[in-house]
């Protein structure tokens, strides 16, 4: 039956006004009250307390609240017309509670052995058991979303050879047995072109691709122009090519630089895109001598439209073009289904604003990364072009890596981020990032003509519930509360027919508020904003999980984001890529759960208790 529920939202021991929602659920008896720490985007989760149990027995950080009554409200919408989706499964990490209002046993609605009657000293364990019995959304007959699995970062070793091929083959066969569509692999610049410029070693990748093709799997290939190591989930070390590092030793301004002058060797600064600093080549220029290369291709991002004998691309283009020629047969037979273009740290379109190796810890706001000589020169030139040279300086009051927004003059409410100077600086900072993506994708489109290309955008969800969105601003996403910073990125991708690949689709806002209440994070709100930014301009949207996940709780969240129930146009993700193939995933129980998730992503029917 459909029942209305009255909610009191509690956060940090403060009560707020009730929020009324309704949804269809068959087995929770009348009189149940949901008391949550926070609700965001209509998604909620919690734990269950026994009838008559004092709220003081609830998990930590829950404010006591009185019982609320049921309301007869049949609509399925929140105030303002927002759709309230079905309840999601509950997680061990969530410290919320659902309190039953009054003892209904005398009315015969709850039996003495009802699963709703939990022992207060064992709430956490029994919540998990109950969560798996809760009504799940059925995805049978929904659109088919291909599922890929990322291969280990070191599947190709330092010598350019395939590592442990026998073990990998068995793992790939197992993935094939549960109908996984394909795998994703990083093609590391630091491995393939390590010895010398334009000397490429594709041997290990050819061996891998042949195995994947024999097993009738597909390939998503990442052009990884960044260093591996030092980030979350990095368990190997793959530096940039040796010859690039030698150049950096004599000219460290080729790297991103913070206010203290610390260089980040993870990837090359956006400031050298058009500078001849890589042994006579730029990062993104190439000497075109053929009119045919430019047929149907006009590039407007630089100062003029380019023609024959003008420079378009060098280092990145040479690499991408070499790959396309080397693996032509895999493109022609459809084994390679997509090329993801690395555009920055971790392969993402962003600045390296939160590097752990420089002391950043979650949920610090990060720092602006534009203190290398080339980006400082770009900022000064932009200010002069604006007619106000005094604007050409980086903010001095923006805090440090682990600052919080309210501690800084720039990011605090009413801070400099929203005055004329702040708007100029942030506009320049984000434009340089988007222009870089525009330039590299233009050339990727030329190198991989006719193939699907994609770009990855990171999910910087902390401080999303503040006015300035400080962590996003330092990463290059100009997305304060009064501006949509992802629409320009989506429009740029639209121009190149590129897919937007976004992270953190498995994260819940409630969990973030419990584990890091000071972070004011909202991953669900961010995901929804980016989904709509892409879909509003008909850009295909793909995604991946930000952190490892192995249980049904996280998979259900991914499914809800992949196929939104409330979208009137039935829009959905184009693909999903799972992070990552490892021994934990291959555990019997975990692998069974993952197989069930794949079936549901494919729109197949699965038993609820499967």
UniProtKB/TrEMBL annotation:
The keyword Cytoplasm does not apply. This is Beta-amylase. InterPro entries: GH, Glyco_hydro_14, Glyco_hydro_14_CS, Glyco_hydro_14B_pln. Transmembrane segments: none annotated. It comes from Musa troglodytarum (fe'i banana). The keyword Hydrolase applies. SUPFAM superfamilies: (Trans)glycosidases. It catalyses: Hydrolysis of (1->4)-alpha-D-glucosidic linkages in polysaccharides so as to remove successive maltose units from the non-reducing ends of the chains. Its EC number is 3.2.1.2.
């Amino acid at each position: 039956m459909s029942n209305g529920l009255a909610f009191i939202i509690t956060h940090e021991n403060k009560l707020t006004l009730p929020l009324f929602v309704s949804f269809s659920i068959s087995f929770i008896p009348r009189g149940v009250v949901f008391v949550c720490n926070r609700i965001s985007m209509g998604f909620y989760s919690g734990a269950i307390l026994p009838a008559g149990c004092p709220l003081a027995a609830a998990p930590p950080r829950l404010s006591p609240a009185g019982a609320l009554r049921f309301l007869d409200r049949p609509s399925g919408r929140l105030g303002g017309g927002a759709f309230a989706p079905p309840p999601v499964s509950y997680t061990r990490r969530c410290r919320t509670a659902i309190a039953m209002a009054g003892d209904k046993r005398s009315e015969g609605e709850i039996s003495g052995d009802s699963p709703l009657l939990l022992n207060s000293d064992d709430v956490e364990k029994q919540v998990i058991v109950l969560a798996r019995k809760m009504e799940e959304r059925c995805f049978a007959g929904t659109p088919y979303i291909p599922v890929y699995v990322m291969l280990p970062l070191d599947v190709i070793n330092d010598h350019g050879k395939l590592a442990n091929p026998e073990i990998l083959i068995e793992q790939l066969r197992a993935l094939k047995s549960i109908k996984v569509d394909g795998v994703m692999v990083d093609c590391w610049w630091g491995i393939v072109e390590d010895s010398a410029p334009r000397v490429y070693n594709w041997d290990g990748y050819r061996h891998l691709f042949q195995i994947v093709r024999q097993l009738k799997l597909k390939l998503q290939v990442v052009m990884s122009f960044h260093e591996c190591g030092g980030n979350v989930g990095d368990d190997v070390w793959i530096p940039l090519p040796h010859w690039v590092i030698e150049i950096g030793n004599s000219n460290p301004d080729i790297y991103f630089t913070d206010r203290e002058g610390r260089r980040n060797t993870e990837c090359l600064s956006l400031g050298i895109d058009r500078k001849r600093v890589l042994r006579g080549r730029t990062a993104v220029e190439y000497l075109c001598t053929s009119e045919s290369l430019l047929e149907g291709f006009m590039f407007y991002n630089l100062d003029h439209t380019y023609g024959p004998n003008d420079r378009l691309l060098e280092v990145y283009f040479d690499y991408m073009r070499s790959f396309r020629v080397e693996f032509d047969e895999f493109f022609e037979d459809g084994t390679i289904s997509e090329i993801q273009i690395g555009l920055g740290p971790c392969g993402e379109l962003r600045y390296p604003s939160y590097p752990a190796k420089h002391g950043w810890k979650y949920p610090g706001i990060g720092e602006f990364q534009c203190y290398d000589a080339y980006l400082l020169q770009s900022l000064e030139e932009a200010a002069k072009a604006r007619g106000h040279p005094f604007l050409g300086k980086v903010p001095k009051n923006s805090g440090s890596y682990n600052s919080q927004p309210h501690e800084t003059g720039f990011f605090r409410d009413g801070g400099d981020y929203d005055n004329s100077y702040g708007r100029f600086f942030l506009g320049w900072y984000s434009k340089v990032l988007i222009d870089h993506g525009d330039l590299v994708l233009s050339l990727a489109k030329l190198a991989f003509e006719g193939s699907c290309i994609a770009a990855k955008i990171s999910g910087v969800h902390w401080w999303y519930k503040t006015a300035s969105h400080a962590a996003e601003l330092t990463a290059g996403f100009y997305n304060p509360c009064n501006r949509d910073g992802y629409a320009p990125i989506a429009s740029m991708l639209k121009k190149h027919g590129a897919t937007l690949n976004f992270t953190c689709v498995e994260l819940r806002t409630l969990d973030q508020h419990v584990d890091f209440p000071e972070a004011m994070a909202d991953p669900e709100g961010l995901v929804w904003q980016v989904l709509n930014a892409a879909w509003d301009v008909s850009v295909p949207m793909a995604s991946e999980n930000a952190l490892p996940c192995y249980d049904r709780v996280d998979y259900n969240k991914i499914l809800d984001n992949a196929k939104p129930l409330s979208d009137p146009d039935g829009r959905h993700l184009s693909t999903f890529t799972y992070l990552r193939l490892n021994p934990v995933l291959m555990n019997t129980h975990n692998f069974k759960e993952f197989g069930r998730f794949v079936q549901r992503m494919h729109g197949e029917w699965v038993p609820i208790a499967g």
